[in-house]
Amino acid sequence: MRTSRIAALLLAALLLVTVAGEAPAEAALGFSCTARMPLPAEDGLLSALAGLLEVSSLTGTWVEKDGSYTLEATLSVGDAQHSASMALDGVDSHWSLSSPLLGDTRLMFNNQAMLEFGLKMDNHLGVPLYRAAWLYPYVHRDAWAAPLAAWHRIMDAPAAAGHIPPEALLQLGEAWLALYRTDRAFSVWMDALDRDTGLGSSFGEALEGFPDWVETYAPDGIDVETGETGDSWYALSGDERLLLYSGVRDASLVLPGFWCGEDFTLQAYGDDFTRIAEPDDPGAYAVRLRIGEDGETLSVSLLLDKGSGRFTLTLGGGCLEELAFPMVDEAGHLALVSPGETEEGLWTLEIHRQEDGQWAFFSGGNAVPWLLVRAEAEPFTPDTWPAWNAAELPGINFFSLNDTSLEAFLRAVLPSAVKGAVPLVAAAPAASVARLMDWLEEIGLLSVEP
Fold first, then answer.
1. Beta strands 26-36 and 325-328: pairing type?
2. 9 pLDDT above the threshold of 70
3. C-alpha closest to that of 376 among 356, 349, 362, 361
4. Which residue of 279, 318, 353, 404 has the lowest C-beta tally within 10 Å?
């Protein structure tokens, strides 16, 4: 379903705007959030969401210290008398969830298995929950931990000595290919990448052909030069520059012919990698990725200007032709389109912080926002600060439920879930509930096999 991709896209974009930069060591915030979709939507799910957002609000508190955090949140529908609350305790790798909807049962989430669970939901039910898992930064850190460790183990010493021999490059390629085939987190991450874009398998093909690439483009290895400003340059032993890295103003990685014969280019601009900027505008921050000539396979551009509160994401390329994203059509309705269906072959999302404090979402250069989000936060002093141990967080391991344990879990929580959910459903617009039920049946969650 095209519509199943929307929530992941919106949340990821909003998080990039509001959480840009390094997180503080400790924080305590009370927050409130409301959202609405001001335009009519052709799609059934979008229409259902629009109706639900009109009558819903989210309030709560967030307390964090040294990587441990507690989130307490309440979703209200209609008014405060129709609400559901939850509390989530945890660290990045593990969460423990409690809620009146679960009765006396607690759920524990081992987030090392989050992406794999999402893929299994897609395999067995056709529900692509792995796209939601992409939103969680820990999923990516966990997947790339082993490849980055191999990079440092193999590349750091020769780079510090001023020259990376071809033997080290080949060793790195072999290590990454082995991890691609055997490391669970890395291989699952590539599988998820492959589902919608095909880039995961093509990355594996690029690694298999890496020895030929080294022989063609770096037969003598790579020289490393350090300038007076502290900039570091990785370059071919010959005149052609292969890879350039600068820790002061900008960074770029250019690998000609690497991606199955196509060029791979990654560029970032800014003072460091937590703040990335356009080269001609030190107040803006940017990252660009291109695969293929002029990004014909994949083109991604991220621009962030924290001063003016503007964020822009631009997507294009052939590997995205099966994906669709929200855009205002000529009739003024919110619709779902693929980047390839637009006149420029690109899809653009712009997020602006308006004078009234709302975040406004625009697409396709349209002047009318299709989503408005109001989020407010106030610091406070908590009575206690969280200090969780991942191994001691209580609850049933949700990502490890099998048919038997899932049945037992549902029997335990169903009375509390029904008791808590019925008032929320009753307070929601009937048309939105009906459209949501139709969508759940369409994707198979409400279908019953004879």
1. unpaired
2. no
3. 356
4. 404
Backbone angles phi, psi at 194, to 5 degrees: -75, -25
Stated as kind and residue range, the H or E segment containing 170 is helix 166-182
CA distance 190 to 216: 26
Q: Is 412 helix (H, G, I), strand (E, B) or coil?
A: helix
Q: How far apart are CA 80 and CA 78, in angstroms?
A: 7
The Cα–Cα gap between 236 and 242 comes to 6
104's CB contacts (< 8 A; 6+ apart) are none
Question: In this structure, are residues 65 and 445 in contact, taking their beta carbons and an 8 Å threshold?
Answer: no
Which DSSP string do the residues of 15-61 spell out, in sequence order?
Answer: HHHHS-SPPPSEEEEEEEEEEE--S-BSSHHHHHHHHHHHTEEEEEE
- Please state whether the predicted TM-score (pTM) of the whole model is above 0.90: no
Question: Rg of the chain's alpha carbons, rounded to an integer?
Answer: 24
Residue 449 covered by a domain: no
> Residue 1, Cα to own-chain centre: how many angstroms?
18
Q: Is 389 helix (H, G, I), strand (E, B) or coil?
A: coil
Element (H, E) at 349: strand 346-353
**Helices H / strands E in the chain, number of each:** 11, 21
336 burial type by CB count under 10 A (0-12 exposed, 13-18 middle, 19+ buried): buried
Among 120, 128, 101, CA closest to 3: 128
The DSSP output letter for 208 is H
Residue with tokens 């020259």: 163
Q: Which helix (H) or strand (E) holds 138?
A: helix 137-161
The average confidence (pLDDT) of the chain is 80
pLDDT tens by residue, 233-268: 565 545 555 565 555 556 667 777 788 778 887 776
Question: What are the residues whose beta carbons fall under 8 Å from the beta carbon of 424, sequence distance 6 or more?
Answer: 75, 77, 82, 83, 84
Residue 396 lies in a domain: yes
The pLDDT of residue 245: 56
What's the gap between Cα 4 and its chain centre? Answer: 14
Residue with tokens 């280019």: 265
Write the DSSP assignment of 227-252 as a string of letters.
-TTS-EEEEESSSS--EEE-SSSEEE
Range(s) of the domain holding residue 338: 2-442
Beta bridge mates, 109? 95
pLDDT tens-place string over residues 373-384: 999 999 999 999
Number of domains in the chain: 1
| Domain presence at residue 447 | no
> Measuring CA to CA, which residue among 134, 114, 117 is closest to residue 7?
134
